[in-house]
Design goal:
Distance between the termini: 40 Å
Oligomer: single chain
Helix content: under 10%
Order of helices and strands: EEEEEEEEEEE
Structural class: mainly beta
Strand content: over 45%
Number of strands: 11
Largest sheet: 7 strands, mixed
Low-confidence stretches: none
Length: 119
């Protein structure tokens, strides 16, 4: 089992920045690729970014150049730095862990953290 706990969400104005964190506990963190997804009201959950143990980052087109995923394996934490935020980025952001790569199939989910971007 892997437990994931997100933090860092909040309310920010358009053009601002937030950094989300996802702390993992349980089984070997380095054995999992980590990813971020988001779900806006009335919409399906969508992929945002992912990365494996080291390197090999992938991003959804709508966040390229604005969001950066990173991980600190010693702290068992994955981050999502979000810059130049837009109102369309408003959603609940979820952290996920996958035992497969490059096909990311989420084995574990966090509870989510709300991000609200005001115009």
């Amino acid at each position: 089992q892997v437990q994931l706990v997100e933090s860092g969400g909040g309310l920010v104005q358009a053009g601002g920045s937030l950094r989300l964190s996802c702390a993992a506990s349980g089984r070997t963190f380095t054995g999992y690729a980590m990813g971020w997804f988001r779900q806006a009201p009335g919409k399906e959950r969508q992929f945002v970014a992912s990365m494996r143990f080291i390197g090999s980052e992938y991003y959804a087109d709508f966040v390229k150049g604005r969001f950066t995923i990173s991980r600190d394996n010693a702290k068992k934490t994955v981050y999502l730095q979000m810059n130049s935020l837009k109102p369309d980025d408003t959603a609940v952001y979820y952290c996920a862990a996958s035992s497969t790569w490059p096909s990311f199939k989420s084995d574990y989910w966090g509870q989510g953290t709300q991000v609200t971007v005001s115009s």
